[in-house]
Amino acid sequence: MENVADVPSADADAAKMYVWLKSVESKANNLSREVDLLKNDLVRKNNDLRKEVKGLTDDLLEIRQEQEKTLKKMDLIVSELRKTAGAEEVMVLKKYIDLWNPLHFVTQRDLDRAIRSRMETKEDGKDSEKSMDYTKTNKKEQNIPFM
Predict the structure, then answer these.
(1) How confident is the prediction along the chain (147 residues), in pLDDT tens digits per residue?
(2) Listed residue (80, 101, 79, 98) closest to 90, CA to CA
(3) How many CB atoms within 10 Å of residue 67?
(4) From the CB of residue 65, how many other CB atoms can be counted at a distance below 10 Å?
(5) Where does residue 144 rank: exposed (0-12), middle (13-18), buried (19+ CB within 10 A)?
(6) What DSSP element (H or E) covers 134?
(7) Which pTM was predicted?
(8) pLDDT value at residue 11
(9) For residues 145 and 111, is the Cβ–Cβ distance under 8 A?
(10) What is the pLDDT of residue 132?
């Protein structure tokens, strides 16, 4: 009879074991689903991060190219500025211009008029020596260079 008494307790143990096993199986399935969700989320976030990194890499490459172009333009500007006259050279030019005083130069038209008027005075028979002396002194006063 001991076997008969053991049978209900064995059935109870088997039932407990079955319930416990189903509970563990359910928990394992829940954990498996959570792991799958975490895995899918991780994969999605990893893909998003890769896209962001690729975009940032492209932006960085573009910025570097723009920086290189800017540096080339700056080098060109600096080289062009080096070709321009410095303050000392400008001062030397200013001294020469002040010395020559180009505002008092005679124009071709003025020279032609003076020659025509002199030729007319010679034809008129006036005193050519006086007109010659006058033009020489006038040219000296005007700093007219002779070519």
Answers:
(1) 445 455 578 888 899 999 999 999 999 999 999 999 999 999 999 999 999 999 999 999 999 999 999 999 999 999 999 888 888 999 999 998 888 887 777 888 988 998 999 998 888 765 545 555 555 555 444 545 544
(2) 98
(3) 10
(4) 10
(5) middle
(6) helix 128-142
(7) 0.45
(8) 85
(9) no
(10) 53
The first and second tokens of residue 108, run together, are: 């071709």
Question: With b meaning 16 or more CB within 10 Å and e meaning fewer, what string describes 104-143?
Answer: eeeeeeeeeeeeeeeeeeeeeeeeeeeeeeeeeeeeeeee
Residue 121 CA to its chain's centroid (Å): 69
Q: 16 is written with which tokens?
A: 């407990």
Residue with tokens 């999605």: 44
Which residues 6+ apart lie within 8 Å of 143 measured at CB?
A: 100, 101, 104, 105
Q: What are phi and psi of 40, to 5 degrees?
A: -65, -40
